[in-house]
Amino acid sequence: MIYVLKNKYVTLSVNSFGAVMDSLVYLGEERLWQGGEEWSGRDVTVFPVIGHANAYTVGGERFLPKSHGVARYSEFALVDATLTELVLELSSNPVTKKTYPYGFILRVKYVLKKNSVKVTYEVKSKGGVIPFYVGGHPAIKAPGGEALIEFENEEEPFHYLAGVKEAVCLQKIKKFVANKAMFKKFKTVQLGGLSGGAVRAHTSDGYVYTYKSDCPVVALWSNENGGDYVCVECLWGINDCPDFPEELEKKPFINFADENGKSFTYTLTIEKE
Predict the structure, then answer these.
(1) How many H helices and E strands in the chain?
(2) Cβ(19)–Cβ(26) under 8 Å?
(3) Which of 104, 130, 232, 236 has its CA 20 to 30 A from that of 183?
(4) Cis previous bond, 48, omega within 30
């Protein structure tokens, strides 16, 4: 089902299948990639793994997850809705336990405030402590699949190469261009160790998207062969690597939650330059 949130700046459509953004209209202009042969998606609720993860073990038992985990393939139930707020919930079930054996409740909350969308993921255990990754994967409209990425603060981030255990420290970066050539070289760019300042994506059609979060990793991705979009992903976790430990609870950047729950938030603001 599609739920619609609206104020005088933004109209946000959220699909209950996956609890993802389906459309994001700012002052009458669609600013979310609307799918195509290069990528059929628009957004992904990432939980409890990121990307095409390798098999992992829990208590010695081996599990092979689907891409980005279980939330992506699940119907969420409505918890609460107003004109500017929406809460959707996924509860663990026999299907989710085939690839993620824990009992959990995952809530995704969307809140509109002026020209911003605040997204919160709340993870609760149904018993004991559970390990997981979580995050978002929205694809902003970007002509040519290119965006100028600008940091609020000068950064010296760690660049985590896909499939490689060791990170490369980049020196004194304020801005760089994310384009198809970069994605052909690196596939996904994963940056960690950021200061917590805003990350801005400027597109050639005159829009700026500002992401604000305390997430440990910001990832950038687009299909290297086409598609007028760039994904800027606020992630509490990282793509898997063959050299990472097999045990899920020992993987880098892993999060833990108990029955009291734990929340993770990012805010996306859209402006016309």
Answers:
(1) 1, 25
(2) no
(3) 236
(4) yes
Q: How far is CA 6 from CA 14, 81, 111, in A?
A: 11, 12, 10
Element (H, E) at 186: helix 180-186
Token pair recorded at residue 79: 């918890």
Q: C-alpha 86: how far from its chain's center?
A: 18
Alpha-carbon distance values, 259 to 50, 103, 122, 262 (Å): 23, 10, 11, 9
Decide: pTM greater than 0.85. Answer: yes
Helix (H) or strand (E) holding 59: none
Q: Locate 211 and state its tokens.
A: 């992401």
Mind listing the pLDDT tens digit of every residue in the chain (273 residues)? 999 999 999 999 999 999 999 999 999 999 999 999 999 999 999 999 999 999 999 999 999 999 999 999 999 999 999 999 999 999 999 999 999 999 999 999 999 999 999 999 999 999 999 999 999 999 999 999 999 999 999 999 999 987 777 899 999 999 999 999 999 999 999 999 999 999 999 999 999 999 999 999 999 999 999 999 999 999 999 999 999 999 999 999 999 999 999 999 999 999 998
Contact assessment for residue 99 and residue 66, using Cβ atoms and an 8 Å cutoff: yes
Residues 6+ apart with CB under 8 A from 229: 33, 38, 39, 139, 140, 141, 142, 145, 222
Residue length of the chain: 273
- Residue 129 carries which side chain, given as an amino acid letter? V
242: Cα separation from own chain's centroid = 22
User: Which position has the token pair 């911003």?
Assistant: 116
CA dist., res. 225 & res. 233, Å (int): 20
